[in-house]
Write a structure and sequence with these properties.
Layout: H1 2-8, E1 20-25, H2 27-32, H3 36-49, E2 54-62, E3 65-72, H4 78-99, H5 119-133
Length: 135
């Protein structure tokens, strides 16, 4: 159920490169799903199915609850490098603007779904619930 989520995180027109997903959830929910280490290993396994060279992290007990993530660290081939770089810059700009531009200006509106860090956990919850119904 994670492979489509990871695939969707890749840069548009990027040939399947440049993907990353971070899941944030309450610690109790992470524990119900097997804990941060199991979630991290599951993300890593799904990413490897896509051929990603992975960098993963897992932190429990943060201000945001449990945070687990995976990043594709493969070298991007030349035909896709411009698209991946442009998408990475766009996502970074959205993240910075959401926190607030320099000078203390008001925060920007919530980002679109393709840059919202909370969308992956919503998709994971739906996929997990559907998988449980099939049991």
């Amino acid at each position: 159920m994670l492979v489509p989520l990871l695939r969707a995180s890749c840069s548009p027109n990027g040939g399947g490169y440049g993907g990353s997903v971070e899941l944030r959830m309450p610690d109790a929910e992470a524990d119900d799903l097997g804990g941060a280490d199991l979630l991290r290993a599951t993300l890593r396994a799904a990413a490897r199915q896509l051929g990603w060279k992975t960098e993963t992290y897992a932190m429990a007990g943060t201000v945001h609850g449990t945070m687990v993530g995976v990043v594709d660290r493969r070298e991007v081939p030349a035909p896709f490098s411009e698209a991946v770089a442009a998408d990475t810059a766009r996502r970074m700009r959205i993240a910075v603007d959401r926190v607030g531009p320099r000078g203390g200006a008001p925060r920007q509106p919530a980002p679109s779904a393709d840059a919202d860090p909370h969308m992956p956990i919503a998709a994971l919850r739906i996929a997990y619930a559907e998988a449980r119904q099939d049991e």
